[in-house]
């Protein structure tokens, strides 16, 4: 990654020009710092994003406002959807800084390139309200409690119409691990709304502690989760399998094997999903799936390779109270399932 000249776009780059024009309206009196790869991705370079622009801000707190170029179609239209440009968004990021700082942090640009590699490699796109664990600190350049991220509409950049379609500006927001847990149990957008009073413009401050250490914030978040339930309907797990055993008398019984780490998440989410009429899907790396659904009576069924577990509110509560995040076999009376929990740990 290196600095590039102010005329960073190609001669025919209507998408790039549209983004630059939108930012010029926000920062009419400031020339941004521009950065880009030595060899662009479309010419065989390793970095998916063609560039970044960064503006220095002193208000409401000192920070850099960094914007990507490359998730959307910067040059000619290539995708099939005429309404959406490329992946449909660009990312923004607002790391706090020292007022005297003259250059944006390189770790922030590298981090955004890594997010781009994930999108380009998988085809999975980010949306307003998404959260994402990043399996470590947001930067290894210094100590920080930020080890997860969320995505929200940039508070100062509305969606943009370009010749290639619409482009949204999604801001990356650094979270601590317990804040990520709170996002899972509630709704990310609601959580960030609570945080805005303490994180103006949703800046990412490497030096901050979890906002949930504030009793008022924690109480507001817990009350919101209990009132609204959770928007998380999908959990991924490395360890998941199930099998059916026939009995001489009566219907079949089932054995489900799951890791202890996922049990902890499962027992927290079930009371925030099923009583609100929402299902919860647990998916394993090898394709195994268990679908928990609210029901008027308890029922176990097999459908398209998945195990559907329909639970009454009382049984859902009993299951959440019975399962423990430690190795052992667990069962709820009346439910023909043995839950075999195996110890799992988070890798380094």
Rg over CA atoms, rounded to whole Å, is 23 Å
Work out the number of β strands: 18
Strand content: 25-35%
Q: In which range does the helix fraction lie?
A: 10-25%
Largest sheet: 9 strands, mixed
Compressed to H and E, one letter per element, the order equals EHEEEEHEEEEHHHEEEHEEEEHEE
Uncertain stretches: none
Distance between the termini: 28 Å
Oligomeric form of this entry? single chain
Q: Total number of helical segments?
A: 7
Number of domains: 2
Given the helix and strand composition, which structural class is it?
alpha+beta
Q: Average pLDDT, to the nearest integer?
A: 94
Quick one: overall form?
Answer: elongated
InterPro entries: SUFU-like_domain, SUFU_N, Suppressor_of_fused, Suppressor_of_fused_bac
Keywords: Aminotransferase, Transferase
GO cellular component, one term: cytoplasm
GO molecular function, one term: transaminase activity
Word description of this protein:
The chain folds into 2 domains: 2-228, no CATH class; 234-342, Sufu, C-terminal domain (Gyrase A, domain 2), CATH 3.30.1360. It is built from 7 helices and 18 strands. The protein has helices at 14-26, 106-122, 177-185, 188-195, 215-228, 260-273, 313-322, and strands at 2-3, 33-36, 51-57, 63-69, 84-93, 131-133, 148-153, 160-162, 165-175, 234-237, 240-245, 253-259, 280-284, 289-294, 299-303, 306-311, 328-330, 337-342. Strands 1, 2, 3, 4, 5, 6, 7, 8 and 9 form a 9-stranded mixed β-sheet that branches. A hairpin with a 2-residue loop joins strand 15 and strand 16. The radius of gyration is 23 Å and the shape is elongated. Residues 45-208 form the Suppressor of fused-like domain. Keywords: Aminotransferase, Transferase. It comes from Allosphingosinicella deserti.
